[in-house]
Amino acid sequence: MAIKLNVEGMTCNHCKMAVTKALTELEGVSNVEVHLQEGTVDVDYDETKVNVEKLKEAIEDQGYDVK
Ligand code: 9UX
Questions:
Q1: How many structural domains comprise the chain?
Q2: Among 38, 41, 56, 64, fewest CB within 10 Å belongs to which?
Q3: Separation of CA 46 and ligand 1 centre (Å)
Q4: The pLDDT value given to residue 54
Q5: Facing residues of 41 across strands?
Q6: Sheet harboring 40-45: ordered strands across?
Q7: DSSP-assigned states of every residue in 39-56
Q8: 48 CA to middle of ligand 1, Å?
Q9: Which residues form the HMA domain (predicted)?
Q10: What CATH number does the domain containing 33 carry?
Q11: Which atom in ligand 1 lies closest to the alpha carbon of residue 15?
């Protein structure tokens, strides 16, 4: 499963690393691509192991808003 999330507040490379790490650590997430200029995050995940709500929580826990 692949999803593109709109994430507010990611502006520098540290933001990118924080979001990438938080998502990658979730079981079932296989790939994460943060696009700073677009304010988007592409996530590939196994929908039998994780869901969109969990992905959003992981991003929000890092201090960013998911639209
Ligand atoms: Mo960079 Mo991101 O100084 O919240 S860590 S903007």
A1: 1
A2: 38
A3: 29
A4: 98
A5: 5, 34
A6: 29-35, 40-45, 2-8, 65-66
A7: TEEEEEE-TTT--HHHHH
A8: 32
A9: 1-67
A10: 3.30.70.100
A11: 2
Quote the DSSP letter at residue 10: -
Domain of 61 in residue numbering reads as 2-66
Rounded alpha-carbon distances, angstroms, from residue 67 to 18, 27, 40, 48, 57: 18, 23, 10, 23, 12
Task: Give phi and psi for 46, each to the nearest 5.
Answer: -95, 110
pLDDT tens per residue across span 15-27: 999 999 999 999 9
Complex ipTM: 0.85
Alpha-carbon distance of 48 to 18, in angstroms, equals 24
Ligand 1 within 6 A of CB of 36: no
State pLDDT tens for residues 23-62.
999 999 999 999 999 999 999 999 999 999 999 999 999 9
Structure tokens at 66: 């998911």
Q: How many other C-beta atoms lie within 10 A of the C-beta of residue 19? A: 24
